[in-house]
């Protein structure tokens, strides 16, 4: 269905078009320095930061590799034990079609099989029930709640901290 490839400059146009307002920008990026309106310059500056310990991907359909379907990034800690999944975003037209599940599953495979990490963590806003269910279905466990970590449209948002360990991932039937 999908495959991950490294982010390329032309992906910035698609990514910017998927974020349709300030609240959606916070939902995608948290409080990480992006500003509304999101533009290609900001996305390219972020993607240019990719290096050995930070991967930035675009997910594409194997049958149509020129059409971006989703985006994700992952940061590896200095010892290489833990990776942090972040900035997960699925194109509006691809939502509800299994792309998010395929994307996160592909990232888990890279983290555990290729990078050899012990743990993958992530943060997800507590009101994003669809994403929380997806992460739990893929084996992520809630570790705690970070209260009021970001604000959008004058409302404070809290997030769940979640993780999955390599042994947990390997013991899942889907892996």
From TrEMBL:
Cross-referenced InterPro entries: Acyl_CoA_acyltransferase, GNAT_dom, Ribosomal_N-acetyltransferase
Q: Which GO terms describe its molecular function?
A: protein N-terminal-serine acetyltransferase activity; protein-N-terminal-alanine acetyltransferase activity
Q: Where is the N-acetyltransferase domain?
A: 2-167
Q: Name any one Pfam family assigned in the record.
A: Acetyltransf_1
Q: Which domain of life is it from?
A: Bacteria
- Under which name does UniProt file this protein? Aminoglycoside N(6')-acetyltransferase
Record organism: Sphaerisporangium melleum
């Amino acid at each position: 269905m999908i495959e991950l490839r490294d982010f390329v400059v032309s992906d910035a146009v698609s990514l910017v078009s998927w974020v349709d307002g300030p609240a959606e920008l916070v939902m995608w990026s948290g409080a990480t320095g992006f500003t509304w309106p999101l533009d290609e310059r900001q996305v390219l500056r972020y993607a240019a930061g990719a290096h050995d310990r930070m991967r930035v991907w675009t997910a594409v359909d194997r049958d149509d590799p020129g059409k971006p379907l989703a985006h994700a990034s992952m940061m590896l800690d200095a010892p290489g034990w833990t990776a942090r999944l972040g900035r997960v975003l699925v194109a509006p037209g691809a939502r509800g079609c299994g792309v998010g599940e395929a994307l996160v599953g592909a990232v888990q495979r890279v983290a555990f099989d290729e990078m050899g990490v012990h743990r993958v963590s992530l943060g997800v806003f507590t009101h994003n029930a669809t994403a929380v269910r997806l992460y739990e279905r893929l084996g992520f466990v809630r570790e705690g709640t970070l209260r009021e970590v970001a604000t959008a449209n004058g409302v404070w948002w809290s997030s769940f901290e979640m993780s999955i360990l390599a042994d947990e991932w390997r013991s899942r039937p889907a892996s």
